[in-house]
Amino acid sequence: MSRDVGVVIVAAGSSTRTQSPTGELKQLRWIAGKPMLLHSLQAFHARADVAMVVCVLPQRFSGDPPPWLFQCDTDRLLLAPGGRHRGESVRNGMEDLPAECRVVLIHDAARPFASPEMVERVVQEARAGRGAIAALPVVDTLKEVDANGRITRTVDRARLWRAQTPQGFPREMIERAHRDARDASVEATDDAALCERLGLEVVVVRGSERAMKVTEEGDFARAEAMRPLPE
C-alpha cells in the first residue's frame, strides 16, 4: 500500500481546565490503560498508509518527551514544538511531513478514541480531493440566549453537526488555507473553518460518540466508561 497519509496530532495545549493537582497535562495523563496521547499515536501508526505522524508537544516536552512515546513506530514518528496558538502548532506539524504525504489528517490529542472506521471515512473523502471532518448530527434542542440567560429563540438543528477530529484534507488545500489564515492573522477553533473561509469544499462524515473530547476533569471518568469498541 502506498504511504500517502501524514498525520498531525495536536497535543500542545496547556490543559487549563483539566490540569491535575501535580501539574500533569491532560494529554499525558493515563486513561483506559495508557497515556491519552499514546492512544492516538498507536491508532494512526496501525494504518499501513500512514507515512508519518508528527506529534506537536508543548515546547518544554518537544526536546525531552515522555519515554512512553517511543512505544510507537519510531521510524514514523516526529516531534514538533507547539506554537503560540493552535494554528501555529498545526503549521509546525505540517512543515515536518515528508513530501509523499498527499493527504493530511489533523487530530486533537484530547480525543483518544477515534475509531479506525471513522478515520477511514475521512481519508477516503480527502483522497477524493475534498476536505472532510468526522462529525455527529445535533440531536438536542438548541436555545439561543442573551447575556442574562433569557432564551431569545430556538435554533433549527436540522442542518447542524458537532465537529470532531480527525479532519482530513488534500495537502495542497490545507496548506493553502493555513497560509492564507496566517497572512490574514485569522484564527479558528478547527482547521475546516480555515478552508470554509476560502470557499473550499469540506464535507462531514459520520463520527462516533466514543470519539468524545476530554475537556474537563469529569470527562476522564466518562472516557474510562467509553473504551473503544468495534463499530
For this entry, give a set of tags.
Spore Coat Polysaccharide Biosynthesis Protein SpsA, Chain A, two-stranded antiparallel ribbon, 27% helix, 231 residues
Distance between the termini: 24 Å
What's the architecture in CATH terms? Alpha-Beta Complex
Number of domains: 1
Question: Can you write the helix and strand succession as a string?
Answer: EEEHEHEHEHEEEEHHEH
The main β sheet shows up as: 7 strands, mixed
Radius of gyration: 18 Å
Strand order of the largest sheet: 5-4-1-6-10-7-11
Which parts are unreliable, with pLDDT below 50 for 5 consecutive residues or more?
A: none
Helix content: 25-40%
| Total helical segments | 7
Pairing-aware structural class of the strands and helices?
Answer: alpha/beta
Shape: globular
Instruction: Using the coordinates shown, work out and report the CATH topology.
Output: Spore Coat Polysaccharide Biosynthesis Protein SpsA, Chain A
CATH superfamily (homologous) name: Spore Coat Polysaccharide Biosynthesis Protein SpsA, Chain A
**CATH top level class name:** Alpha Beta
- The proportion of strand residues reads 25-35%
What's the β-strand tally? 11
